[in-house]
User: Fold this.
Amino acid sequence: MPSVYIKTYGCQMNERDSEAVAAQLVAKGYTLAGSEATADVILLNTCSVRDFAEQKALRKMENVAAEIRRHRPNTVLGFMGCMAQSRGGELIDRLPDVDLVVGTQKFHRTAEYLDDIMSGRRDKVVEVAEEAGSEAAIREHLLAGNSRKSVTAFVSIMQGCNQHCTFCIVPHTRGQERSRAIADITAECRELVSTGVKEITLLGQIVTSYGRRGFSRAGGTLGDKSPFVQLLEAVHEVEGLERIRFTSPHPKGYGDDLVEAYGRLPKLCESAHLPVQSGSDRVLKLMHRGYTRSRYLGIIEQLRRVHPRMGISTDIIVGFPGETEADFERTLSLAREVEFDQAYIFKYSQRRDTPAAGMPDQISREIREERNQRLLEVINGIAKRKYAAFAGSQVQILVEGPSKKNPARLMGRTRCNKIVLFEGSDRHRGQIMDVKITRAGSFTLYGDPAILNLDNLVEEERHETIRAVDKMR
Assistant:
């Protein structure tokens, strides 16, 4: 059977989409190639949030096509995802060696399109049309093909975005908001837990907008509960699930019901990725974000009142059109006031078909670079101090598996979303355990489980020995 290699650019939504397409193809008999060098099908799942991401994917395909066509001319090349949706057939006009362009509402038909191409029924396929029900059409997870079962998993709860921030192309590439049914989502969560998943991250372009259209709010002793909080409660009831996370929300979605859910639902991790984008009210209005600096700080205060050590990360754009030095200083002061645990900083990138691309007072690359560096220094300085404060403390982690950078170490994550590396064995995978933090690095903690768990480990090894002896009898 043919082999397929999928390379993913961009966000967790793209990672989830790639995972689902890969699982679908494996179910159809494809095998997964370790690299493009051995694959019969090469697919790039693309991102359009920044021009850099698009150019990176285009350069990658140009290089792959040049190499493949010389040595393996029958290899199928394809684009999927947001850039495929945005550019459609122009990708084949630019790169004639590309055979397949699959938009964001057609992922579930990828195997069908590949069959058409490989059988010769179709020469080229470009499919970017909208499709009703596509938000619930593909849900496979790549767990069945893994010898090592995943401990964590993404679950997509909706597609699309109605926010229309002036800098963002996502409403164009992902379409209008479309939410899956709660029963469908919880059924998927139960299936994942049955395979060994302990932590689920709920995904949406603006996840807190879940069910805003077509779902009703629920009343009760806690007052009006949004559809998203109703979904959190339903997922919380899944037996065997240990942790729940979600990303990415919008500050407008943080009503009182969601804030209090952090204190009421034990499985909901005290971690919030809350994009602010700017600390200036003037720039936030130009961005069409729908909240003020004061409102954002109020949400942070509410969250920390529920959990004083709530892990808070954010997204920030520097160099938005018209951003003055005074505006940027407001962003710096907000970063110092909030003291984010982590921030993803983006230099503003013009995206076609967005209002911001045509705004006056576009900021030069030099100023964007300089502001990016200044903000990065502030964020890194705060994070270094906050991470160092963990040294000597005890934290609880869910062990996910080997570290990507150093497979000799295991990696776990705290409830407030801090990565912890430690020396351990594969038997710790999937365990929730306490570790003592011995030192801190850049956005990484290092722990020693033996100090706090020695008695448990000795007892565990004793039981393993007894079981081994019993098997010999």
Confidence is low (pLDDT under 50) at residues 143-147. The longest strand covers residues 432-441. The longest helix spans residues 365-388. The CA atoms of residues 125 and 454 lie 59 Å apart.
